[in-house]
Design goal:
Helix content is 39%, strand content 25%. It is built from three helices and four strands; from the N terminus they run E-H-E-H-E-E-H.
Length: 76
């Protein structure tokens, strides 16, 4: 599973990365997690509000920290 967190490095972006890492460990799911910080790359996904989350090329979240339940659903 390829997951990208889109954002410029704000506290919400860092919290989102941490949340995804924790959920993946808890579920025993192998992920490839990367951070996209370039504004042009972020807007190429159509995300205007960060953090954004892209899973396997599809935007699944934009703006604010996702809930633990939402993240767990992505990894199910």
């Amino acid at each position: 599973m390829d997951i990208k967190v889109l954002g410029t490095g704000c506290a919400n972006c860092r919290a989102t990365i941490s949340l995804i890492e924790q959920a993946a460990r808890a579920k025993g799911v192998s992920i490839n997690l990367s951070k996209v910080e370039d504004i042009k790359d972020i807007t190429s996904y159509g995300v205007l509000s960060t953090p954004g989350v892209v899973i396997d090329g599809k935007v699944v979240h934009a703006g604010g920290i996702p809930s633990k339940e939402k993240v767990a659903g992505w990894l199910a």
